[in-house]
């Protein structure tokens, strides 16, 4: 395929058809992928009130998050627009009671309106042409009192990692986003904490928790070589991922957003 062929959907989003192998090997195999999963394993129970609620996993990809919630007793619906990713998820999730739905986030108000007590949308908004519109859609699917576990690729961390790698011209021009060409895995819409704050407020969502995922790991000169050092790195990441200033430079930002329950006065007027 030519380098210049765009692989974007008609809406301008990067569905992961043609990327499943690359995604699986770059994001989930190896130390960084393991670290991300190990941190989520610790942070999700700390950051969310989990009571076995039904969960909608938006852009669920290969199904790792669905698998995690399903193993903890949640009835999960995984929605994913890419047929290739969904087929992989079906294989990974064989034997588990989960519903799989081939659908984009934008189609969910018609196909899975809920309202849902718990929604996960991890590492998806940065692949969309209109992440702000997507936040409004996610908010509309959330029940009063419902929680949204949102994880986004952090634009500020992308700048730092470009500088650290010596890509000074690109960083100075602030040309950080990918273009959705070929099999590149640089997101087309990396996001800032400020955008999440603004868009949450626009949609009546409250930020309850925030953490940085991989606040140190991506900037190491030498990756840890022993199990003991890998454990130390995980302990450091966990210790500092919710503390200022470190969380702000996590490669991903992980949020718990909540739709508040209307107060008594609001419901009775
Ligand atoms: C980086 S992967 C993340 C997968 C999974 N959530 C995870 O954390 O491993 C991004 C996923 O978003 C999906 N995606 C792209 N555009 C989407 C859209 N408009 N609606 C829902 N999912 C979308 C892609 O097909 C891909 O599976």
TrEMBL record:
It catalyses: 5-carboxymethoxyuridine(34) in tRNA + S-adenosyl-L-methionine = 5-methoxycarbonylmethoxyuridine(34) in tRNA + S-adenosyl-L-homocysteine. Keywords: Methyltransferase, S-adenosyl-L-methionine, Transferase, tRNA processing. Pfam families: Methyltransf_23. It is an enzyme of class 2 (transferase). One of its GO terms (biological process) is methylation. Its EC number is 2.1.1.-. It comes from the Bacteria. InterPro entries: Cmo5U_methylTrfase, SAM-dependent_MTases_sf. S-adenosyl-L-methionine binds at residues 36, 59-60, 80, 122. GO terms for molecular function: tRNA (5-carboxymethoxyuridine(34)-5-O)-methyltransferase activity. PANTHER family: TRANS-ACONITATE 2-METHYLTRANSFERASE-RELATED (PTHR43861). Belongs to the class I-like SAM-binding methyltransferase superfamily. CmoM family. Catalyzes the methylation of 5-carboxymethoxyuridine (cmo5U) to form 5-methoxycarbonylmethoxyuridine (mcmo5U) at position 34 in tRNAs. HAMAP family: tRNA_methyltr_CmoM. This is tRNA 5-carboxymethoxyuridine methyltransferase. The gene is cmoM.
